[in-house]
Amino acid sequence: MTEINSEELTLVRATIRGDQIAFQRIVELYQGPIFNLAYRMLHDGHEAEDAAQEIFIRAYTKLETFDQSRKFSTWLFSVASNYCIDRLRRRRPIVPLDDLAFALPSTDDGPERSALRSELRDAVQRALATLPDHYRLVAVLRYWNDLSYQEIENITGLSESAVKTRLHRARNMVAAALDKQGAEL
């Protein structure tokens, strides 16, 4: 069972009552994770910024539909995931990646190591971009947003076994794409 955050619930209830400062606090709490999800799904920094704004607008207008017995972050990630998938469907083909890459732990290993790490980040980002949307979504939720299987189930409506299967296939597809690129882990 997911733990319900009392601060989130207080903010949600205050926002429903019309407290805009409470909603501003919700945005402050989640703008990073929502932008991160949008960027991982859309692969474009500017589009991810636009998407994050639209996601918060949608969340605000649909906040009364939120089931307060559930975890708010799961509901918000569901809104974000659905919005990003809809946006991807509307914009085929996929837009090329820009230079932003996901955050691997940085170390001060010197210029050679730093260059290798940067190349690996770029290779993983390109490999991630090759995944079908439904595989990319579960991979982003699990590995970049650190969500549990149950939270991913709640967001996507999939069973736990389907989530695990998609994650397994996504890992295999990324590994194959990296192998094809000649990237070494």
Automatic annotation (TrEMBL):
Keyword presence, Isomerase: no
Keyword presence, Transcription: yes
Any matching Pfam family: Sigma70_r4_2
Annotated RNA polymerase sigma-70 region domain residues: 27-92
Gene Ontology terms for molecular function: DNA binding; sigma factor activity
GO BP term, example: DNA-templated transcription initiation
Keywords: Sigma factor, Transcription, Transcription regulation
InterPro entries with a match to the protein in the record: RNA_pol_sigma-70-like, RNA_pol_sigma-70_dom, RNA_pol_sigma70_r2, RNA_pol_sigma70_r4_t2, RNA_pol_sigma_r2, RNA_pol_sigma_r3/r4-like, WH-like_DNA-bd_sf
Domain RNA polymerase sigma factor 70 region 4 type: 122-172
Coiled coil: none
Family: Belongs to the sigma-70 factor family. ECF subfamily.
Annotated protein name in UniProt: RNA polymerase, sigma-24 subunit, ECF subfamily
